[in-house]
Amino acid sequence: MPPGEPVINTRTLAEELRSLPPGLRRVLLIRSAPEKMLLEFLEILRGIQPEAGVTLLCHAGRELEGCESLIYPHQGFFRPENVNTRKLKSAHFELAAVPYATERRFHPAYYNVDSIAQASGADRVVLFYRDGRALPADKEFFELKRLRVVEPYLERKRQALAEIAAFTGEELSLVEEKCDLAGLEAVRLWSAADPRSEEEVRRYYTSHDFYIYELMKTEYNGDREELVDSVLEECAPGEKVLDYGAGVGIFSIPLAARGAEVTHLDLPGPLFEFARSRFASRGLPVRLLACEREEPLTGSYDTIVSIFVVEHLLDPERTLRHLSRHITREGKLLLAVDFEEQRCGDEPLPLHLAPLTAERYYSIMRELGLELVRRRGRLDVFRRKA
Question: Are 218 and 149 in contact (CB under 8 A)?
Fold first, then answer.
C-alpha cells in the first residue's frame, strides 16, 4: 500500500453482499473495472439477492446482458459533471456498487467514480476490488479518503500536467484529456499498425507520444510508489544503476536524487526526449542511453532495474539473458513482470508481445544461474548463485 494510504479492514465480496438487507430491488453498478470483475459481482449478487435489478452505468458498447444500461455519453474516465445525477436519484437505488480494478483500497484515481456513487443517492455504497475483497463506504470513509489521498493526488496531478504542458506546449485541458485517453489511444494505434516484426514494434513505440501521458498518469496515480520504495531500498547511493525500459523516469529520478549513478535506457523518440527534459529541469546527472539495437548494453552495473518491460518484448528470454550478462559478480537484477495470469480480463493497454507465465519466467532465471533472494511485493530481487 502506498505511503499515506490508511489501512482498513475488508471482507470478501460475498460476505459484504450477504450483510445487506434482504429484498434489494434497485442496484447501480458502475463499469469502472474489467468485465470479469463485474460478472463475478453479478453472479454473487444474484445468488444472494435474486430479485435485485441492476442498472449498469457504462460507455456505449460496454453493456452487459441482464443489466439495464445507462450510457455514459463521453469517452475516457467517468466524471460526475457528465452524468445525469437527477436521473440517478430518481431511480431510488438501494445500493451503488463501485469496482476498483486494483487492490488499493483508497486508490485516488477513482474519486470521480466515488462522487458519482455518492451523488446517486443510493442508500448504501459498496466498493469491491480485484482481489475479491469489499467494504462499505460511507461519508466518513470518503472524507478520510479526500483528506489523506485525493487532495495530495490532485496536487501531484496538477504538477505532472504542467510538466507535460511545458514540454509539449499544449493547453493543460488537452494534456489532461490525453492522459485520460492514453490507454485507449495506444490500443487504437496498436490495432491500426498491427506490428509483427522487431522493426515494426520499434517504429510503433518511437513514432508516438502516448506513453508520455500514460506513464505520467501512472506516476501521479501513485501506482508505482511501493515499487519505487522497494527499488530505493535495494540501491545504495553511489551504485551504478541501469533503469532498462525506463519510460518517464519514475525510477530513474528518485534513484538519481538519492545519489545513485543512474543510466536511463529506452527507445529513442518523444518519450526519451521528455525524460531528458525531466532530468534537466531537476538538475540530475542522469546518463541517457538510447536503445538502438536489441542488445544495447556493453558495460556492467551494480544493479539493473526493469519494471514491467520484458513482457512487452518479442523475445523476453533474449532480453533476460542480455541483462544477466551485464550485472557485476555481486550485482543484483530487480525485475517486475506483468504475467498473463495476473491480468484481469479486458484490462486496457497490455500490448504484450510474448505472453510470459510466471512458471517460464522463474525457469529462465534458474537457467541463467540467478537466484531469487527475496521478493518485495511485485519486485523480484535476483543475484548470481554462489
Answer: no
Residue 264 falls within a domain, yes or no? yes
Distance CA 347, CA 325 (A): 34
Q: What is the largest CA-CA distance in the chain?
A: 68
Consecutive H or E run containing 59: strand 53-59
Residue-wise pLDDT tens digits, 292-327? 887 889 999 999 999 999 887 778 899 999 999 999
Q: Is 21 exposed, middle or buried (0-12, 13-18, 19+ CB in 10 A)?
A: exposed
| Domain coverage including residue 176 | 152-223
Stretch among 4-8, 30-34, 359-363 having the lowest mean pLDDT: 4-8
| Residue 28 and residue 117 in contact, taking contact as beta carbons nearer than 8 Å | yes
pLDDT digits (tens, 9 = 90+) for 89-106: 999 999 999 999 999 999
Burial of 22 (0-12, 13-18, 19+ CB in 10 A): exposed
DSSP annotation of 269 reads: S
Q: What CATH number is given to the structural domain containing 25?
A: 3.40.50
pTM, full prediction: 0.89
Nearest to 382 by CA among 226, 265, 234: 234
